[in-house]
Specification:
By secondary structure, this protein is of the alpha+beta class. It has 12 helices and 6 strands. The longest helix has 34 residues.
């Protein structure tokens, strides 16, 4: 795996070095200070690898902040025990510090897995992980903990897996959209109905990205952050970008409103979305649904043809 960042501008190189240092220091502080520090797995807990993947690793990132288009840093953190993947216990403080650090000029998305989990996925030939092994760049690595050599997935297995994911997720997506549409029709009944509609729209969009990512990569991160999910999906299919206009600050505000809905629409008395906001978000969610369905059907058909050849 590569370890150089020479293809990146100096600013991004400095930002990634800063992110790496925050993650290493934050993990060590969490490991030492948390409960159960004397347990064997915690005492010997290690970050084995920090890997840059996605657009900045492939060198196809977008850097147009004036238009609302700015690629995120996507990082895989590999640890040596499954319990160390707990975001709240080990990674929340680091994520918050990175978010607030003025020296880091773009969003940083983290996924955390233990080495055995990653190697099991590589043995199954899951595309998400084989792409990381092929394209990823190691920002930090402890020697002696190699990845499994990726194994090819049988064409028939790839087809059946993708088809199963598509049929399941597109059905879930349509249910979320139906429920959201029903509550939007009742928005005059009050804030509680509008909040419910916003939450259901969030779940529809999350499910749309889950459908796309599972069909195309066989992987979906443990995240409800639709901005992160959008970033992963759009990196694979640029046509999905058009689902969410970004040139206008009003459009960006509405996507942020939807992003916040997963938590705030359920738990905050201050959260609300106007009828106009909900109508716009429904239209964009339906557009995303159609683009995801089109791309996913094409992917499943391609895998079917390969399985039958």
């Amino acid at each position: 795996m590569r370890s150089d960042l020479e293809h990146l501008p100096e600013r991004q190189q400095r930002e990634l070095q800063r992110v790496r240092d925050i993650l290493l220091a934050g993990f060590e502080a969490a490991r030492i200070s948390g409960g159960g520090a004397n347990s064997g797995w915690r005492r010997g807990g290690q970050i084995l690898k920090i890997i840059l993947f996605g657009s900045y690793a492939r060198a196809d990132w977008v850097d147009e902040p004036e238009n609302g288009y700015l690629s995120d840093f996507d990082l895989l953190i590999v640890v040596n025990h499954e319990k160390l993947t707990n975001i709240a216990d080990y990674w929340w403080n680091s994520e918050d510090e990175i978010l607030r650090d003025p020296a880091i000029g773009r969003t940083v998305n983290l996924i955390v897995h233990d080495l055995q989990d990653v190697n099991d996925a590589l043995r199954r030939g899951e595309y998400f992980w084989t792409d990381i092994v092929r394209d990823g760049i190691a920002l930090y690595e402890i020697p002696g903990h190699p990845f499994q050599t990726p194994q090819p997935i049988a064409p028939a297995d790839a087809y059946s897996t993708a088809d199963r994911h598509f049929l399941s997720k597109i059905a879930d997506l349509d249910l979320w959209l139906r429920d959201a549409q029903n509550h939007i029709a009742e928005e005059a009944d009050g804030q509680h109905v509008r909040k419910r509609a916003a939450f259901e729209l969030h779940q529809a969009v999350e499910t749309a990205y889950a459908c796309f990512l599972l069909v195309h990569t066989f992987y979906f991160p443990r995240s409800h952050n639709i901005k992160f999910l959008r970033s992963l999906a759009e990196a694979l299919n640029v046509e999905l970008v058009e689902a969410w206009p970004r040139e206008s600050r009003f459009d960006r505000r509405r996507f942020e409103l939807l992003k916040r809905a997963y938590v705030e629409a359920r738990y905050s008395d201050q959260y609300d979305a106007s009828a106009e906001d909900l109508d716009w978000l429904m239209a964009r969610a339906k557009h995303l649904r159609d683009r995801v369905a089109e791309s996913s059907r094409a992917r499943v058909e391609d895998l079917r043809l390969k399985a039958e050849s």
